[in-house]
Amino acid sequence: MNQSERKRQAILSAAISEFLANGFKGSSMDAISARAEVSKRTVYNHFENKEALFQAIVMEMFRYLQDEQSFSYNAGQPLDEQLKVIARHKINTMSDPHVQNLVRVIFAEAIHSPHLIAQALEQYQQSEQALDSWIKAAIADGRLREVDPHYAAEQLMGLIKGSAFWPQLIMGRPTPDSEQSEQIIEDSVAMFLNYYSA
Questions:
Q1: What pTM did the predictor assign?
Q2: Which of 65, 71, 120, 194 could pair with 127 as two cysteines, CB 3.0-4.6 Å apart?
Q3: 63: domain range?
Q4: pLDDT, tens digit, 9 for 90 and up, residues 99-117
């Protein structure tokens, strides 16, 4: 990483901290430059305005989410084993403090600045489609009963996020440790398959 890239990352990190502390509207480019310990001119060299900074934070979040592997359905492998791999990867991503801060910044603006997060919400939904495809393949193989794949995927993610994402994000609860995470995965997958197995 060269010096310009390091400064850009420092500005992004400062913007995340500033938006978390004061909200998007309550933050200024002056405050962000002070947090980043760079000149205001340097901030503007990298980002045209505050909105451009916010969109860069959105893209940072989706860079993390899109790094998720594509989960290919395997007809020869037990469904629970495959779903546990998917769920484990989701929990690992959602437990990352950096990802949680990115999500906090973005969703904090949902009420105040819906236009800023419209694209973010659309991309967030698209990032969840790997599981939809997996469920669709399992249905086609006759191993899950006929259901809207997206609806079923949302139910599985709801079980997982209800214990391992939203309480941490909204209520500040501690991130589940490895043993707790495995229990959440085990129970969520079992409940899902108990209902949807063909």
A1: 0.81
A2: 65
A3: 59-196
A4: 899 888 888 877 777 777 7
